[in-house]
Amino acid sequence: MPTSVLIIDDSVTVREQIIRTLEPFKLFDRYYEAEDGLDGFKKLSSSPVDIILCDLEMPRIDGFKFLNMLKNRPELQDVPVIILTGMNDRERKLKGLEQGASDYITKPFDHEELVARVKIHLKIKTLQDELKRSNEKLQKLSNTDHLTELFNRRYMMEVLEKEVQRSVRKGSDLSIIMLDVDHFKQVNDRYGHLQGDVILKRVALQLKQELRSYDCAARYGGEEFISILPDSSLQQSLLVADRIRLAIQAFKFDGPLAPLCLTASLGVAHFSMEQSVTVDGFIKQADDALYRAKANGRNRVEFHP
């Protein structure tokens, strides 16, 4: 990943001196410059950086105000800020550190010290970024069904709980669709479990294509799937469900699955505050509707009245 540094100082000479000191060590691919805190903050909005070197005394927005502005931007709070200040300015150094600076360098600065401190904080920032990416990957894995790459049942329940609370709070529409692949056991028995997995992944992909970006599709278990549709009325959700049903009915497979005509049954439920149902009760409404769809011949959509 390209690395970059932002140097904020009202002195062109100081900025050039810092760049000349750092360039031979090839620590950064890009160098950004700003003449005060306001200019620096604007640069950050368009150009993310790995380290900031910031003077304390500057016109318009000084270093202290700049540090306070960073506190209000969560995405910038992990960027280390090394403050540049006068040799005997102990109180201002402490104040800068208290307001969020990671380190300080006194001016006129020692070139070797500047490089050493920048190296340390760049290494810390790199390790923090790697840890953050690893945590995000682990979080995604913990929320995802490994076969279909849809959300898993546990995460779906968390999302549904939040959406029910939001629906109660705002009085907004909320619907869920429960889908079951018809005769899936027979499909597994005839074509084998590996081909059954192919079918489940195909259905999951179709759900992603049919739903909106803010809907939530999850594998509920086995060949059952649940889709959460915020801000969706019963009528709208029925149209979505039938669109999914028709798309699955139109599937064409290659290889061993070529003879297969796949269908699915779907049950739709719309959340109603008047019924005061729990999350489990809401799911049961969709499950009951699904049961009726299967009892009435499969390859159809039913809804909870």
Provide a descriptive summary of the structure in words:
The protein is α/β, with parallel strands linked by helices and 305 residues long. It folds into two domains: 4-137, Rossmann fold; 153-303, 2-Layer Sandwich (Alpha-Beta Plaits). Helix content is 49%, strand content 19%. It has helices at 12-22, 37-46, 63-71, 90-98, 111-143, 153-170, 184-191, 193-210, 234-249, 279-295, and strands spanning 4-8, 30-34, 51-55, 81-86, 103-107, 174-181, 216-221, 224-230, 264-270, 301-303. Strand 3 (51-55), helix 3 (63-71) and strand 4 form a beta-alpha-beta unit. Helix 8 (193-210) crosses helix 9 (234-249). The model has no long low-confidence stretch (mean pLDDT 93).
| Radius of gyration, whole Å | 29 Å
Mean pLDDT: 93
Question: By CATH's scheme, which homologous superfamily of the largest domain applies?
Answer: Reverse transcriptase/Diguanylate cyclase domain
Q: pLDDT below 50 for ≥5 consecutive residues: which ranges?
A: none
What number of domains?
Answer: 2
Biggest sheet: strands, sense, closure?
5 strands, parallel
Helical percentage: 40-55%
Class inferred from helices and paired strands? alpha/beta
Shape: elongated
Distance between the termini: 55 Å
Number of strands: 10
How many helices? The count is 10
Per CATH, the architecture of the largest domain is 2-Layer Sandwich
Report the portion of residues in β strands: 15-25%
CATH topology of the largest domain: Alpha-Beta Plaits
Report strand order across the widest sheet.
2-1-3-4-5
